[in-house]
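Reviewers asked in the last cycle whether our approach scales beyond single polypeptides. To address this, we selected a multi-component target totalling 310 residues and predicted its structure end to end. The input consisted of the following lines:
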Amino acid sequence: MAKINSLDELRKLRDQAKESMTARSGEAKVRIRASMGTVGIAGGAREVLKAIIDELEKRNFHEVEIIEGGSMGLDKEEPVIVVERDGFQTTYGKVQPEMARQIVAQHVINGQIISEWVIARNKQ
Amino acid sequence: MKELSLNILDILENSVHAGATRIHLTLQEYLETKDFLGFRIEDNGIGMDQAMVDSLFDPFTTTSTTKTVGLGLPLLKQEAEMCHGGCELESQPGVGTKVSFWFQHTHIDRPPLGDIVSTVLMMYAIHSDIEFIFTHEVDNNSFEISTSELKEVFQDVPINNPKILQGLETFLLENKNQLYGGKHYG
Ligand SMILES: Nc1ncnc2c1ncn2[C@@H]1O[C@H](COP(=O)(O)OP(=O)(O)O)[C@@H](O)[C@H]1O
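The resulting structure, written as structure tokens, was:
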């Protein structure tokens, strides 16, 4: 990536992002909930979320909203992420960065659930 | 936690859960002017009364219903004290909370600062509605950036857009390297 150390250079980035947003509108809208509680953070939740962002960027998929999911009472399963897509809430447990990348590629973008990592699934 | 930047993320999340709309993180690394590494997190959340503040460093205090122990702050306080540092917490109900931790920078038991850029990035990724101010001081140099400044730049493009987040990561990394000026702080 080009050098970005000033607000001016961030402005250029804005124009690029704006372009790719308008070019790609119409994709399925997906929401990802990431938990960022103490247990999740200690278990690598930050790196998991970074991997998600990186994979979304690489695949140029922007119709996604990432929000905090709270601790969800699933300490034993942390780091936990929830994918909301096609009317279902799918919860993945013990997620590590490489798993997160696959979840983005297969589920978030293409709608294919990775069953072996799913710990809960509910209709929205 | 294996690095202080993860403790910082955990404390920032406390502020978020206290309903803060404004959070200021100040990180100070001094090696030349003094032997000091410290950070302070100030929020305008619901705050705590004196009884709560007093009991906070008792490891069995937490208002979370899903967990029985809140170990974050007491453990970090212990680590700070082991490293000739300390901890201060001021809070006022309805006004907000200010938490500070500091360490002797060169103490051999001091946990590494770790990836502070990723910690800051999390605030933009999942809490972009909060006005987050990040001030980083390294000896005589300093860097500061706020969510409102960034929103002014990005206008109708959300700052939690993946492309923007990656650009912000580069922006933060380059400014950090500039602050360090080629020296190793860790
Ligand atoms: N910035 C803050 N504002 C208001 N209350 C806070 C803040 N930080 C911590 N607290 C209170 O102190 C409790 C203990 O915090 P902590 O030791 O980090 O444990 P945990 O977050 O795991 O519960 C929290 O549950 C919360 O009630």
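Chain B has six helices and six strands. We regard this as preliminary and will revisit it once experimental data from Aim 1 are available.
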